[in-house]
Design a protein that fits this description.
Elements: E1 5-13, H1 17-20, H2 23-36, E2 41-48, E3 54-60, E4 63-70, E5 75-83, H3 88-98, E6 103-111, E7 122-125
Antiparallel strand pairs: 1-5, 1-6, 2-3, 3-4, 4-5, 6-7
Helix pairs in contact: 2-3
Length: 126
């Protein structure tokens, strides 16, 4: 079976506290990241936790982008899954830069191909 999609799991460290705790800014960042990658945005849902943190999803025709942020640790976990010809790294890179990530660990997994061999983690200082 040909690969149906590409899934980037990204660990973002050293992010800006205010950005990680601002639901409107995160929503805007994720919608812009989806559009920048060429995706078609379908639905958007984000939630602000008390006292801090944001979780959310942008549903795209090609799959989804998600986040859960931990502002108190300067950390965010993000997923970008795209099907077809879209490159999920375009959106993941945009998000990491927008959130001010100082360090990032990415794993890219081909989806729909069968048993997966995960490549070693790539650590990238921004």
């Amino acid at each position: 079976m040909e690969t149906m999609g590409r899934h980037v799991i990204s660990e973002l460290w050293g992010c800006n506290f205010e950005k990680l705790n601002n639901v409107q800014e995160i929503e805007r960042t994720f919608v812009n990241a989806a559009l920048k990658s060429g995706a078609e945005v379908r639905e958007v849902a984000f939630h602000k936790f008390a006292p801090q943190g944001v979780s959310g999803v942008v549903i795209i025709s090609e799959s989804h982008l998600t986040i859960h942020s931990f502002p108190e640790h300067g950390y965010a976990s993000i997923d970008v899954y795209t099907c077809g010809d879209l490159d999920p790294n375009i959106a993941a890179d945009y998000i990491a830069e927008a959130l001010g990530a100082q360090t990032r660990e990415n794993i890219e997994i081909p989806r729909g191909k069968g048993p997966v061999q995960i490549k070693p983690t790539q650590v990238k200082a921004l």
